[in-house]
Specification:
The chain is an alpha/beta fold. Helix content is 25%, strand content 23%. The radius of gyration is 17 Å and the shape is globular.
Length: 207
């Protein structure tokens, strides 16, 4: 049986709407919502931090499992930042299309195919993950992130651009800032799935 954390233990800094935690919400399996969504739902995301979906089937990647929640942009940034800054593995991250993306999720390097990435896309990302990295472009720390701006890789179907595009080498702190800033540039969003990194290396992709 999967061990799950209590809501207050998993998200001690977030206050959740009472109506999203009552018996009806539990009956309908509606995830708890942060209090900010009560008056402003223009930007919201379903945060499922410790789970990867392999062709539609949930697969836990971290124990104990934090519960699924719906968060505003500010609360999502707060929760993601805690994990991203302390992740020591390698990360490739693609800037999402702020007008169209509905999911932004991390896939470990050994699970690209199982998560539904096309073989040629998976191979291109894997090769970039193994390329040598220098110091961060924004400081003197070791780079562990490769950040691909939208103008470099506008679509994840473009294998040639993934293989050849210029990427910014960043440390975990500045990689985190770059990713979260890209979220903030979208005036509104409704993301159905966002998680956090696990394992030794992987990629953040968007749909």
């Amino acid at each position: 049986m999967t061990e799950s954390m209590r809501l207050e233990q998993a998200y001690p800094k977030i206050r959740f709407r009472w109506r999203s935690r009552n018996w009806w919400a539990r009956l309908t399996r509606t995830p708890p919502e942060c209090e900010h969504l009560e008056n402003d739902g223009a930007w919201m995301a379903t945060f499922i931090p410790d789970t990867l979906y392999l062709r539609g089937k949930a697969s836990v990647r971290r124990h104990p499992v934090r519960p699924e929640v719906s968060l505003c942009l500010a609360c999502l940034r707060h929760e993601m930042e805690k994990d991203l800054r302390h992740f020591s593995g390698r990360v490739i991250a693609f800037e999402p299309d702020g007008a169209e993306f509905t999911q932004y999720f991390y896939v470990g390097s050994g699970e690209f195919s199982a998560a539904g990435l096309q073989p040629e896309v998976a191979n291109a990302i894997s090769r970039r993950l193994h390329q040598p990295m220098d110091v961060c472009a924004s400081c003197d720390l070791r780079a562990t992130w490769l950040w691909f701006a939208r103008n470099e890789v506008p679509s994840l179907d473009d294998v040639a651009r993934i293989a050849m595009a210029r990427a910014e080498m960043l440390c975990s702190q500045h990689g985190t800032e770059k990713l979260l800033e890209s979220f903030s540039r979208a005036p509104e969003a409704n993301l159905f799935y966002v998680n956090v990194p696990y394992g030794e290396s992987g990629a953040y992709v968007w749909i």
